[in-house]
């Protein structure tokens, strides 16, 4: 199977051997290991590759010293630590290499952002470059297949998502998504504080899957799952930090009747979402196609902007009843506000609400449809 180049490859290659560790976050099975292997392929026997999922590795790195690192590394110039969040005191262990062995390039990856960030934040301050890798983006697949060919795959991506194992095995998508969604993607959540997969978590994920594109009501979710709002908030936070969900907050500055604290929740991959509800029927026979289209564009845009040096702030916008108006997606960057309304079907009556234009007359606005969206994900 041909390797599909990741957009981050050139950026990370340019950071190698510049005196700082490379920290790569992202969900399990999104291609972190494969990308790193391609990045270091030309260094051949100069690489020491360790995996934090391996008990022997965890034991070896427990309380490791500079002298121990020198013995482990020998004359090798690259240290790769995969699933680094599983290593106790991983930040301190990697700091020793960065500080005491400056000729060694550290590359650490992890599938659990909150664990790895927490364990490296203080000890590696000023000593690292951080990146996030996701399932294939629209831009990456366009680079591989061409723009027109990839646009023709729009429905397939909305149904099956863009995990590498799914994209590279057409015809076997549902089986591979079943294995991914069954438990593998939730492995990091279950490892936390003895947490086990419960009916509450299953019900919550399904409830969120059924209301993509809608605002989240914690009380309603608590009632559906038979728990309390604090538990719902905690589980959603964990699902976000494990790259299963993506939250979008409300934008508010000018109007008294703007909502201020609400959130929408999207899935980081629509294939996972559709596997959760076991529905892969075609878009023309679905009632949730509009929400899926909104989810697809917003998460693909997120992939594009997330690794920018100063990514824009992202929001949705809505006013309160009785005359409620809404904008699906907003970005605020360098003092400029941008707004997009997302429509699955071309509609000559689609407009940006006058209430928004009046409140934010300097905002740059646009309408996205299946016939007019590639600039949003590429430019």
Automatic annotation (TrEMBL):
Domain named AAA+ ATPase: residues: 18-135
SUPFAM superfamilies: P-loop containing nucleoside triphosphate hydrolases (SSF52540)
Pfam families the UniProt entry points to: AAA_14, DUF4143
InterPro entries: AAA+_ATPase, AAA_14, DUF4143, P-loop_NTPase
Domain of life: Bacteria
Full protein name: AAA+ superfamily ATPase
